[in-house]
């Protein structure tokens, strides 16, 4: 029996600039993080003598249901903070590819915090504080709203709502290691000095948003293509789709996204390339951006 359930949406970095480096080696960044309809699901079931986890879904086989899983790590961290002895059996439906730059594990951890926070009456501000040590992307995934991420991801500023556009995600079926990509970024020249993007009060259309994004970049894209040249092919394929306004990689890769004027335009492009995607073993998802 399911007591509570929630969706853990894919995080997309519409741009990702590296702005500096902390003494501990972590990179300071500036990013516009938004969320797509694509999602994992976390369910809380019956009480148990300790937190335990079952994993199902298309990408479930690639993950262990042990203490390394971010769902259990988040549950235990919140349990310790709340001083609760109230454990449950949890289920993760893993629909998002693992280690793919769309923060799936971070979204799962954040989703677990939201669910247990609801059961145990814990404020969002406390959840965000507990999220931080779990990973750089976990705080933004607690809110699942467009946010500017600064610091190493823990400084969040609410961004204007997304226009009602479409997004097509493609993952070429290879896991990319975030630390490896950061290391290559540093080795390939590192920080680029540039002015910080300025957001308007609102974006009226996808073209309006894309106009601002055209002045930005994902600084990890070139190092990721160096590690995994198939990312370049994914970007070319997205660029070739009718109505695709722009194509870029998210996070440390390998998932890339194309932005479209409407969710239907993104879905049509997904259908258009479905044969090629099936042949190459690519994962795809198309639909809306979460609005706010
Ligand atoms: C690239 C982004 O996805 C952008 O949203 C995130 O910054 C990465 O977040 P994440 O996957 O939660 O990363 P973490 O698990 O915290 O870090 C993995 C490793 O990547 C490197 N890392 C990560 C984040 C950051 N701002 N600087 C780094 O140098 C560090 O070597 C770190 O040990
Ligand atoms: N529930 C989980 N889902 C996915 N990965 C998990 C989970 N729990 C632990 N991990 C581990 O975390 C690592 C990163 O996974 P994740 O899918 O979050 O990467 P990502 O999409 O590249 O994230 P980011 O965009 O934050 O860099 C994987 O190597 C995986 O083994």
TrEMBL record:
| Known pathway | Isoprenoid biosynthesis; isopentenyl diphosphate biosynthesis via DXP pathway; isopentenyl diphosphate from 1-deoxy-D-xylulose 5-phosphate: step 3/6
EC number(s) on record?
2.7.1.148
Q: Per its UniProt record, what InterPro entries does this chain match?
A: GHMP_kinase_C_dom (IPR013750), GHMP_kinase_C_sf (IPR036554), GHMP_kinase_N_dom (IPR006204), IspE (IPR004424), Ribosomal_Su5_D2-typ_SF (IPR020568), Ribsml_uS5_D2-typ_fold_subgr (IPR014721)
Q: Which UniProt keywords apply?
A: ATP-binding, Isoprene biosynthesis, Kinase, Nucleotide-binding, Transferase
Quote the catalytic activity from the record.
Answer: 4-CDP-2-C-methyl-D-erythritol + ATP = 4-CDP-2-C-methyl-D-erythritol 2-phosphate + ADP + H(+)
Pfam families noted in UniProt: GHMP_kinases_C, GHMP_kinases_N
Task: Indicate the segments forming the GHMP kinase C-terminal domain, all copies.
Answer: 212-275
Q: Which residues form the GHMP kinase N-terminal domain?
A: 69-142
The residues that hold ATP are 97-107
Family according to the record: Belongs to the GHMP kinase family. IspE subfamily.
Q: What does this protein do?
A: Catalyzes the phosphorylation of the position 2 hydroxy group of 4-diphosphocytidyl-2C-methyl-D-erythritol.
Cross-referenced PANTHER family, in alphabetical order?
4-DIPHOSPHOCYTIDYL-2-C-METHYL-D-ERYTHRITOL KINASE, CHLOROPLASTIC
The name this protein carries in UniProt is 4-diphosphocytidyl-2-C-methyl-D-erythritol kinase
Which organism is this entry from? Gluconobacter thailandicus NBRC 3257
- Gene this protein is translated from: ispE
